Every structure is written in structure tokens, then in C-alpha cells.
Amino acid sequence: MSFRFRATAVAVSAFAFALVAVPAAQANLLSILPGGCNAPVSQPFAQWGDNNEYFLVPGGLFNAGETPWASTGARVESGSLSLPAGSSTASPAVCASIYDPTVRLFITNSGASTSHLRVEALYPGLLGGVQSAQIGELSGTSAWQPSPQLGLTVTNLLATLSLQQTVIAYRFTPQGSGGHWRIDDVYVDPRMR
């Protein structure tokens, strides 16, 4: 009789543990997604009148030992990413939601003034595959300057797999010949404004 009691007690304990562990596992699932969502925030653009809080995209400072970006023809140079004509780079995916669709960074273009820097957001589509949306085409000078806020629209975000949590990567591609772009300090705003 005590064997049956112990077996029942073990089964009830295992079931109770499963009920407690499942919600915890679901909550922890979000913590294994790439950066963002609960990343520390700062105000890197405050001196330019933007007091919004941002989190750093992984590898977005372009320092040695940081998370690498997927690049073609781009290279890290003096703590920033150099993007000559014909190059392209994409950030690692960051955890995002409808509340953090905005990216902002520092840019410079020491090449032809007719060159622009195309910025695209890459995100999973509702029906599978990767969707892309152009969110900006930047002009720049030889002096470092903050970019404007570049964001996805609600229409783009409604096409994602989830309104609560998704992943977004950002692709930067010089347009036109003769441009020599550099980017640095790539941040995402964790709140839709």
C-alpha cells in the first residue's frame, strides 16, 4: 500500500512540477532570442535633442571581439564599419515587437555626394521566408552625424509572424557610384513613439 501511495505522490508531484515549469519555459523562450527586448537602454542621441531610450544592436559598435555582421565588401575600420560602393552589410537579428521598429545610427560619407545609403529592415513573413522593407535612403557628408529615426510601419509589422515578439535585422547598402560610407553605433528604439 505504501508503494502505491509513493507512486501516486511521485506522479502528482511530477504533474505539479510540469504545470509550474511550462509557463516558466515559455517565458524563458523569449530570453533565448537574439538581443533586444530586455536589453539595457541608454540615450545616445540626447545631445541632438532625441531623449528616447535605445538599445545597442549586437556588434553595433564595431569593436574587436563583438558579434560580427554579415557583410560583402564591408570591413571594420577604426571602430566603425566602412561601406564602399558595391558593398552591403546586415546586422544580426534582434528581438523586436510592434513596440520597437525604429533604428538610428551615426553615419558619414567621404565619397561622392550623389551616393545614398539604403537602409532596409529584414523580418520573418507571416507565410514564411524573409520579408524586406526599405525604411530609409540617407544622405551624408564627410562629418559624422546621427541619422534620422528610421522605422517600420505598422503595415510592415502586421505582416510578421507575431505582433508580440519577432526578430528584425537591418541591411545597409550604398547606392550610386563613388560613395564611401561609414556607420557606427547602431541602436534600436524599444518603444514606438
Provide a concise account of the structure shown:
The protein contains two helices and 13 strands. With 193 residues, the protein is α+β, with helices and mostly antiparallel strands.
Give the helix/strand layout.
Layout: H1 2-29, E1 55-56, E2 70-72, E3 75-77, E4 80-84, E5 88-90, E6 94-96, E7 102-109, E8 116-124, E9 130-138, E10 145-146, E11 150-151, H2 154-158, E12 166-175, E13 180-189
Antiparallel strand pairs: 1-13, 2-5, 3-4, 4-13, 5-12, 6-12, 7-10, 7-11, 7-13, 8-9, 8-12
Jot down its keywords:
alpha+beta, 2 helices
Secondary-structure-based class equals alpha+beta
The helix-strand sequence is HEEEEEEEEEEEHEE
Q: Give the % helix.
A: 10-25%
Strand count, sense and barrel status of the largest sheet are: 7 strands, antiparallel
> What is the alpha-carbon Rg in Å?
22 Å
Shape: globular
Number of helices: 2
Overall number of strands: 13
Question: Which runs of at least 5 residues are low in confidence (pLDDT < 50)?
Answer: 1-34
Average residue-wise pLDDT: 76
Q: What is the straight-line distance between the termini?
A: 65 Å
